[in-house]
Recover the amino acids of this structure.
């Protein structure tokens, strides 16, 4: 078994794991359980780690903590955390000295015994990944769901069977150094994102393209025919290309005709479902379903897809209805860490909404957000580092007509302002168009804080 062979090969080697977070803790535990010498490196201090430090040392882990945690890396194998660039000077120096630089996901691709379906994209990848996984489960498949969706899988590889399916959400950071691709790949769309980490948009796209660049001719990659950059990327695929489109009929692929989602292949077509079957709001979720249908074609019967879509209420923090209070609907869309994601969220509602936005800047342009805000928002509430650029994009848009904009200090004030202005029938949505890292550990913590405040309204 390749999994066991890999672990056995590490027995007489030293291993460094960079980052003592959610994605790497199971990896550290796995390596320790096999008697492998592990050094865990993290920028946090011992005090910040709290009891975790003692727990790891009790397992035999050597800790390297604080600002110098990347200095003097001499271990045989180094696992980098997904959000860390592989070309940091400390890492390149270690590789020059003979260390092997890898990641939990790279090793998983090498040792996973079952078929892999992987999904990436700038927007919609988590919902699409979840839909694909749940459809396969509903069809009786044993599914292992993980990757960027928050669940590392390498430590569970020993329990996987050849007939299982691993469904993986992959970020650009995870894909940067991947040398393997899945049998079925999905690229939901491409738009500027994470430019605070990537050198430029070209590097970001190149990372995303790694999801299919190592495929073989009989593998499958699914692309959005309505997204210009996706179409350009598809021209580089060596595998079989499947398309989906909400805007035009396709000779081959999944497309929309009226309110019917049609799948056409080999000269024949069939109606898979109606858009009215989809419980999730928004045209972007129609696209998510079309991408999923293309991915599971031949694996999941159409009736299972229809029945699932009628019941599936979505993933937490993705246009998630928190509550209806005084006739006002409050939504949490904390996952929206880019302008394109917020634009899709705003377009999901037929009425104008009260929008709470702002957060940490990722170095991406906000110009396209302004016109959409003016069209779909009745009151804009801003906080965080990007408040100024969002205001600027809104006010300089050609359709700006004096939209009320309020700057606030935090979410408590944002909710109070929204609650005081909203009337029965209104929609209030948190859709930041920015990352959470100015004030929160991640988008989940941000969303939960917002939900707690909304749920405390009397």
């Amino acid at each position: 078994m390749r999994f066991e062979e890999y672990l056995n090969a590490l027995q007489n080697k030293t291993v460094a794991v960079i980052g003592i977070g959610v994605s790497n803790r199971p990896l550290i535990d796995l390596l320790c359980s096999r008697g492998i010498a592990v050094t865990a490196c993290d920028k946090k201090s011992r005090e910040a780690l709290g009891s975790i430090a003692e727990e790891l040392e009790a397992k035999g882990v050597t800790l390297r903590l604080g600002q110098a945690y990347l200095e003097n890396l001499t271990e045989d194998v180094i696992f980098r955390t997904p959000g860390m660039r592989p070309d940091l000077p400390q890492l390149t120096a270690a590789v020059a000295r003979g260390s092997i630089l890898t990641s939990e996901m790279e090793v998983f691709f090498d040792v996973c015994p079952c078929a892999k379906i992987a999904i990436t994209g700038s927007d919609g990848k988590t919902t699409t990944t979840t839909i694909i996984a749940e459809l396969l489960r509903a069809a009786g498949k044993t599914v292992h769901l993980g990757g960027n969706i928050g669940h590392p899988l390498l430590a569970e590889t020993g329990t996987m069977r050849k007939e299982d399916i691993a469904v993986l959400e992959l970020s650009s950071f995870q894909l940067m150094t991947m040398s393997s691709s899945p049998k079925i790949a999905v690229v939901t769309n491409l738009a500027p994102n994470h430019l605070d980490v990537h050198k430029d948009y070209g590097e970001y796209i190149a990372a995303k393209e790694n999801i299919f660049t190592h495929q073989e001719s009989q593998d499958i990659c699914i692309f959005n025919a309505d997204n210009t950059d996706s179409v350009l990327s598809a021209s580089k695929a060596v595998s079989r290309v499947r398309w989906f489109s909400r805007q035009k009929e396709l000779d081959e692929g999944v497309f929309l005709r009226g309110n019917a989602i049609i799948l056409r292949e080999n000269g024949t077509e069939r109606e898979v479902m109606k858009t009215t079957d989809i419980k999730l709001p928004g045209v972007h979720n129609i696209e998510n379903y079309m991408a999923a249908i293309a991915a599971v074609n031949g694996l999941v019967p159409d009736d299972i897809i229809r029945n699932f879509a009628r019941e599936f209420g979505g993933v937490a923090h993705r246009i998630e209805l928190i509550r209806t209070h005084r006739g006002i609907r409050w939504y949490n869309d904390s996952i929206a860490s880019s302008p394109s994601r917020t634009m899709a969220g705003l377009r999901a509602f037929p009425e104008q909404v009260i929008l709470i936005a702002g957060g940490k800047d990722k170095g991406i342009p906000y110009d396209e957000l302004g016109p959409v805000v003016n069209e779909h928002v009745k009151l804009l509430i801003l906080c965080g580092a990007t408040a100024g650029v969002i205001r600027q994009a809104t006010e300089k848009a050609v359709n700006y007509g004096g939209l009320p904009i309020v700057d606030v200090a935090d979410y408590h004030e944002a909710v109070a302002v929204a609650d005081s202005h909203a009337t029965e029938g209104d929609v209030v949505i948190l859709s930041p168009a920015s990352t959470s890292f100015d004030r929160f550990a991640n988008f989940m913590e941000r969303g939960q804080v917002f939900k707690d405040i909304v749920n405390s309204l009397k």
User: Anything to note?
Assistant: The chain has a mean pLDDT of 94. DSSP finds 17 helices and 20 strands in the chain. The first helix runs from residue 2 to 9.
